[in-house]
Amino acid sequence: MSLTIIHIFSVSFLGYDNLSFDKEITYPVESYSSQNSLASDDFNNHTYLDLVIANYNTSTITIFLISRDALFINQTLYSTGSDSFPSLISVNHFNNDAKLDIIVTNPDSSTLGMFLGRNDGTFENMIIFSFAYGSHSFSIIVGDFNDDHKLNFAIGNVDSNTLDILLQTC
Question: Which domain of life does the protein's organism represent (predicted)?
Answer without folding.
Answer: Eukaryota
